[in-house]
Fold these 2 entries.
Entry 1:
Amino acid sequence: MTQVYDLQDWKKKFTLIWTGQTFSILTSSIAQFALVLWIGMETGSAKILAYATIAGLLPQILIGPFAGVFVDRWNKKWTMIASDSFVAICSAVIALLFYFNLLELWSIYLLLALRSIGGAFHSPAMKSTVPTLAPKDQLVRIAGINEVIQSVSLISGPALGAFLLLHYNMSIVMLLDVVGAGIACIMLLFVSFPKTKKATTTSTSVYKDMMEGGRIILKNKPMSWLLFSEIIARFFIFPVVAVTPLVTLNYYKGTPYQVSLVEMLFGVGLLVGGGLLALLNQRFRKISLAVIGYIVLGLALLICGSLSPHLFVIYAILTVVQGIAVPLYEGSITALIQTQFESKYLGRIFGLIGSICQIPAIIGLMFTAELADRFGVQNVYVAGGIALCFCAILVLSIRRVREL
């Protein structure tokens, strides 16, 4: 049966959700950037930054598929609230450790891993809820607006994070994340989520439900190939993200403020890219936008990897281009998943896809931890650029994927 949406009702719901998520994402961006910058300034090691990133990814790989199954069974609204609350508790613990000067690297790894557990439940809950709250023809537009929110946070977060880190104690920075999560939870309390049919009538075990999600994905051959390209992309993109602060600090001999500038410019690019995605979704097919995103990001990374140390300005400008490209492929692929699979299975599907795509990301980070310190961080960019261009060729070479 076709679901009927009240135009003003779904817009009001998303206004409340987006308001809360804006505060949460902004404060998380501030806290995360300040924490990464603190690690980079304290250690100067690509290996340690890579390990910190792995600590934040590994729990989502291990828990993600099971989390997605539970998301399909549980009340999604309260799952999101519980996830945000758990992340807030972890941030509060980090703040206390900084305040009492008890923080060590192993405790950072542990708490980043615990925060990741909250994200493992929140992300599939949020993504699987969107198709139940809004009309199908608005999904790409919503993905674009989500990218705009992310980008605004990435523009403001690094500047505020660098300022707070250099002028205040890290405990204050981490407490801001607690406040942001609290606002997100309060906003969710005012949103009524529609009841959806739970996909548990034929399979009762979590393992069976998880495997069923895998079978559903594999039955859709075009989407399987598209997700395979995403796996390749993440294998090379996550290392780039991990070493970006060190590229500015070590390769370009930059300052903490220049590190924050690069992050801000990337956020500006995300803002533009998210706006483009929202505007172009009615004119271009989703798969076309995804391919354009792959190509633009790949070329930008290739050029960045070829720059000499005195060309920081060009590197910074290319960071904007990278930011524009990311929403085009990430938002388009998310919208394709939401339209290609039934909403009652989306929790387990997003959980499983998230885990599968992050496994190669961790492998890539492990290689980066050794190779970047030995051969230079610039080569990480070159490898990423080649991989993204290959992903675009792969998608274009398969007819059924091109026709998505």
Note: The longest helix spans residues 7-43.
Entry 2:
Amino acid sequence: MEHSLVTLSNTSATKLTPNGKHSGMDITLQNVNDSGYIYIGGEGVTSSNYGFRIMPNHSFSIELNGNDAIYAISSSNGLSLAVLKARLEVGS
């Protein structure tokens, strides 16, 4: 399991998943700020074109397959996002 605290920009999306193909993962994202929104989605995510909005002090979890990538951008520059990643088990 991996964890990190990521500082986000309000002008450029940050990739939260590994580059290239990965084995799949469960990822939980927590907006640890008292104000301001975190927007998540694909590579072109913006504060007006997003897949999901995380409210202050709320979180979002999703299971990603090995081809998926997730990006985040914030409503204000410098907001923090807690990221918890657990790789999926590979079947035998």
Note: The beta strands are 2-7, 14-15, 25-31, 38-41, 52-54, 59-64, 71-74, 80-87.
